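Technical annex B. To support the medicinal chemistry partners, we prepared a structural model of the target in complex with adenosine-5'-diphosphate, based solely on the information shown next.
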Amino acid sequence: QRRPRVLSGIQPTADSFHFGNYLGAVRQWVALQDDHEAFYCVVDLHAITVEYDPKALRERTRRSAAQLLAAGIDPERSTLFVQSQVPEHAQLAWVMSCITGMGEASRMTQFKDKTAKGGADRATVGLFTYPILQAADILVYQADRVPVGEDQRQHVELTRDLAQRFNHRFGKTFRVPEAYIVKETAKIFDLQDPSSKMSKSSSSAAGIIDLLDEPKASAKKIRSAVTDSGRDVVFDEENKPGVANLLTIYSALTGRKISELEDEYAGRGYGDFKKDLADVVVEFVTPFREKTLTYLDDKAQLDAILAAGAERARAVTEPTLAKVYDRLGF
Ligand code: ADP
Ligand code: NA
């Protein structure tokens, strides 16, 4: 009887994680490692689906790992590794692509969103098949739960469909995983455009709070976040999306109920509210940034942690792939 397993990944596509990544996903990763067998990876194979610079990728992969450690991922309890160091991810992705329908893959909304500007013709095939690689990431660990933000729900659904299809066609092989999504923080919005999610690829830096920003810069971003012309601090996602988003962040970082915050700021206007939230953010990011920089100071140690993680990961992925190949008739 093993503990339930979790698997999740994050792309090294920016110098820093943002608050959406942290509150939507990474915070849950930290909490779940207590009673799960946890596998967490920096998904560099996913990061090459868009234009990138190899030198920056190598640096960002280390920065991502350092941030996960700073956030509280414990490499003794959790298996922390880099996706490209575990070849079974890519190997299983090929197999999964052979049981995925073209129509089914074409329905993935994230691909549509990501290619909305440049057009699908200019995108890579890798960006199109990204969700299939993600399915392989999850299934190769026989994961039970996948802690992610709301934007990944559809990809986890596809993963479930593929697992069930494979099991049906070739005999029971995979566990069918479930998305683990914490409703309150499943979607953190852009501070300047609270109708779209905070994203590493967002066009305006003013709308994204990066965990590694200078704390002062983050405070300023909070103070200049878009709200509305009213002055009541109430949680109303429809009519006050900017204020609702700030309340979500405030509540998540302090553990205080949203209703309690509404009471506290009743009749006080947005200025006070944003100033206090700016302080809360500074208090969070200051030590986080210091810890991350400390991990980055010792690259040899960081690389050793990741190499050990990859070895532990392979102890799980090799037997899964062997079983899959056997089922396939190889
Ligand atoms: P990004 O979407 O910023 O490029 P990733 O694709 O690497 O980041 O996603 C890493 C994790 O962060 C995923 O679980 C994703 O669902 C989560 N995530 C990303 N943006 C947000 C957001 N704005 N709110 C909540 N969770 C998010
Ligand atoms: Na994402």
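Notes passed to the chemistry partners:
The mean pLDDT is 96.
The chain has 13 helices and five strands.
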